[in-house]
Amino acid sequence: MEIGDCYIGWATDEEIRSKGASGGLVTAMLAAALEKELVEAVVVLKKLGEFEAIPIVTSDPEEVKAAAGSMHSVPIVLSRYLEYGTKVALPAKPCDARATIEQAKRQQVNLDTTYIIGLNCGGTMHPAVTRKMLETIYKLDPEEIAGEEIDKGKLIFETKDGKEHAIKIDELEEEGYGRRESCQYCAINIPRMADLACGNWGVIGDLAGKGTFVEVNTEKGIEILQNAIDSGAVEITPADEKGKAIREKVDSAMQKVAASAHEKYLAPIEGSHLDYYMNTLSDCINCGACKTVCPVCACGEAAKCTDFYSQALGYKMSLFHLVRFVHLMDSCIGCGQCTDVCPVDIPLTHLYRRFAEPLQEEFDYTPGVDMRTPPFFGVDLIED
Amino acid sequence: MAEDTEWQPKIVMFCCNWCSYGGADSAGMGRFQQPPTVRVIRVMCSGRMDPVFILNAFLEGADGVIFSGCHIGDCHYVSGNYKATIKYKFLKAMVNELGLEDERLKLDWISASEGERYANVVKEFTEQIKKVGPSPLKPEGVI
Amino acid sequence: MDENIFTTVCPGCSMACGMYIREKEDGTIDIDWRKDAVVNAGKLCRFGVRLPHNLKPATSMVDGNEADLADAVAAAGTAIGDGAVFVSVGNTTCEEHLALMKLAESKNAVVNTGMGAFSRIPSECHPTMGVGIPFDAIESAKKIVLFIDPYEQYPLLVRRILAAKKNGAEVTAVGWKAVSLADENKVIGPDQYEAELALDSDSVIIADLNPSSDPEQVMVLLNLAKKSGAAIIFMKPFVNAVGCDLASKHTEQKSFDQIIEEIDSGEIKTLVCLDTDLIEIMPDETAVREALKKLDNLIVITSRESTITDVANIVVATEPLYRKAGTVVNAEGRLLVGSGTGTDGIDAIGTMIGQPVDLFSELHAAVLATVGIDSVDERVIPAYEKPEYAVMEASPTAEAVETALVYAYNPFLWNGIIDDNDFVEMNLDMVLANSLLKGIPVKLTSDRGDVMVGFKVSDVAPGIVLSNAKLPVTTGMVTSVTVSR
């Protein structure tokens, strides 16, 4: 097995195969990593309801198996739950993987002991929006939902009576539902920065729906996949060229969609930028949630954005936000967590992106895709 | 003294200890004329300039901010002014996106012997700020 | 790495925002966002985000010495005799409140919930004062009148009001400080409300009801709703204030002012507080502290260490709210149940009554029966009957003072949190007239002495010094002060 290889894999365990998405490869790899003591712990989402799950750090393979299955309505970034030095594996959407790498640059995570099993991602949905969408567009009772999946541009809900209900994602997003706005314009669908990139794109023929396409990106990727094969938990077969091409095609189609969403949500600001930012931030109640939840912020309690700012100062704009804007210019990965938790619904991710994109372009720097030092700290960038 | 009715901007200027602060000194000793618009804050190195300082200056009511250090290659700490250059790029991008006029922020290199240049920088920058007018970020009640 | 995760509600105010609490092995806690929570979609205000800093677990004490829970319970059981007065504002579950009611009943007493306004207003109004309207209904209102500052007092209402504005609602704020989301800010007296506000049946009135609310003012608002047909919601500063009021069925109660007075005059000798800190709650902290010293027995049953646990004779420490089994009712009337299973508090009170086992299930059934439902579903607000009431005579008296220090009863600050809200707000004219300087504290002088405090220039009415924090010079909701440098 070499870096760059592509395979189709599946779990050997019947139960995992039926419960997990696309053959249960990821679940089986995570469980095998624990069982064979390749890692001490695994970060997974513990399911509490159809639209509700909470990240847990567990050493129990049974809990890993219980967490199998996709959850598009739980938009959480897992990197926050990693602990430095623990040998740990995590399933990672591109934003999870990128956040983990950014955390590693800030010495919050040790990449050498962290196995990132990347998952292709076409976007996630906020549970509150999902519920409302089910009621108003699908005309379904959210409590009747038994599962969901995204396939061929459609969002499909399965109800407890076994019926499937599919609506085109474009149409849903037209109405203001569907995926989170930041997911709509996210252009990274295949997590090539992770140790492995897994997903169902490119699984064709007899294996469609029964296997997971996996691209090996690093030595650690080989290690964790080989471990699962050696322990008998997983079987693989090389992916054929046609499958690879289809995977690429899906990716580039998704990127095109993302580009048009980008134009929609990050359209140039009309009129005064300063007025726009002052108005947008005027509802801020200084809760600090956006910073607390931010997966690329590693400042902790005593941070510049909070320590130098107090409401008593009576500034026209909050220094807290201005400092966050600067700090995130080279680091924002656009994961959307800040918008999710903002109690006054400020579209923070859009704001951070507006500041970050010109600068990330200027320095030709994409955060979270490799270990390159952020430009702010990289003196080597200056040409004389 | 006749009352000067023309609006005088408030400019905060961060000078590095080794070059630009000396430049300010030379400007004084050389009696080069300069407008009384600048409040100088000494920092040890232009590389010490934190974006927070500059943002804070604007929020406190500064109409313009200059930060200044040794010429490239002359930094007392070897590479401080390179770091300042990067920070300046960040801040420029910030100020542009924020919609604060581009002219309000300036980075300049002034050595300890360049008294006249110091005075000229202050003069030119003051004129520039007078053209763009008071900062829209000035808090209520701050003159 | 091992941790217990609880699905729970934020104990800050009667929004009862859903959240997770991660309790680590060493007992420290962390919060996490529960994005599927129906009340708040997982969003939390500053209080919720900083909850780990704000919650300190209580320790059982007898006469100033640390004690076992069992010993503290036994001591409390002996000390609570006839004539004891009971208070519980709603910082705990309905079930625990009911347990206290049982204990009170056995001593021929009632539990006072602190909302003195209830006893002064005809009982047919109580359901309207208790349960408000669904927060979703705020979003579809055509007109919203605010008698609160949502940013400071109930921050999670802000997004509801903003959503309403997006749907075309017009927002008017009545109060000392301009609220930035309001289309119109008005500083008007109660006699002008009707003419100035022009409400109709598509309007929503959002007000606040707390232990220091003036009953006459509450009546004015009830009248306003009655005459215009507008919906009204009274937000409350305690997470389960509504639940406690439902459970107490508005038995003839005393206001806290009355209770403090009677303690002061020696009529009350034993006071039992269930998760209620009078020192924090009452604006005049000094007076409360002085009065409490005159008690023979101050018994505090609480999950949280606070100012009153320092002066109590007996502290019965119970588990924090997130670990408790039981229900909480928020301002909408929504019943919420967390994943906690603890019954330490109920069992402790049960022991005092002589019924130490399985009191919980009996009480939980009683809660459901009171509301008239079979089981709790957090996504369905039970139907509450709100009888018609007649327009009442009401004449709120506003104290006329030249410069008024107004304590802006912010629910979250009772926990004595001096966060970065430790400043007063006044308008620019007042700052200039008193030659105050930016960055230098202002001196406020009242009968109680003086205090130096930071200030912020805000759009506040003339003559008003607004404070979110309770200052040592405060003698009531409004304190006459002089401002100097």
Q: How helix-rich are the residues of chain A, as a percent range?
A: 25-40%
> What count of helical segments of chain A does DSSP give?
15
- Could you give the count of β-strands of chain A? 11
Largest sheet of chain A: 8 strands, mixed
Which sheet architecture does the biggest sheet of chain B show? Answer: 4 strands, parallel
Topology as H/E string of chain A?
Answer: EHHEEHEHEHEEEHHEEHEHHHHHHH
In sequence order, what are the helices and strands of chain B, one letter per element?
Answer: EHEHEHEH
Q: Gyration radius of chain B, to the nearest Å?
A: 15 Å
Q: What would you call the quaternary organization?
A: heterotrimer
What is the count of DSSP helices of chain B, taking H or I runs of 4+ residues? 4
Q: How would the global form of chain B be characterised?
A: globular
Mean pLDDT of chain A: 91
Which geometry of chain A do the CA atoms define?
Answer: globular
Short description:
The complex is a heterotrimer of chains A (384), B (143) and C (485). With 384 residues, chain A is an alpha/beta fold.
How would you describe the overall organization of this protein?
The complex is a heterotrimer of chains A (384), B (143) and C (485). Chain A has three domains: 193 residues, no CATH class; 52 residues, Nuclear Transport Factor 2, Chain: A; 93 residues. In chain A, 37% of the residues lie in helices and 17% in strands. By secondary structure, chain A is α/β, with parallel strands linked by helices. In chain A, the strands form two sheets. In chain A, strands 3-2-4-5-9-10-1-11 form an eight-stranded mixed beta sheet. In chain A, strands 6-7-8 form a three-stranded antiparallel beta sheet. Chain B is an alpha/beta fold. Helices cover 40% and strands 16% of the residues of chain B. Chain B has four helices and four strands; from the N terminus they run E-H-E-H-E-H-E-H. In chain B, helix 1 crosses helix 4. Chain B starts with 10 loop residues before the first strand and ends in an 11-residue tail after the last helix. The model of chain B has no long low-confidence stretch (mean pLDDT 92). Chain C is of the alpha/beta class. Chain C folds into three domains: 47 residues, Single Sheet (N-terminal domain of TfIIb), CATH 2.20.25; 341 residues, Dimethylsulfoxide Reductase, domain 2, CATH 3.40.228.10; 81 residues, Barwin-like endoglucanases (Beta Barrel), CATH 2.40.40. Helices cover 28% and strands 21% of the residues of chain C. A seven-stranded mixed beta sheet of chain C has the order 5-4-15-14-13-6-7. In chain C, strand 6, helix 4 and strand 7 form a beta-alpha-beta unit. In chain C, helix 4 packs parallel to helix 11 and helix 4 crosses helix 17. Chain C is globular and about 60 Å long. In chain C, 55% of the residues are buried.
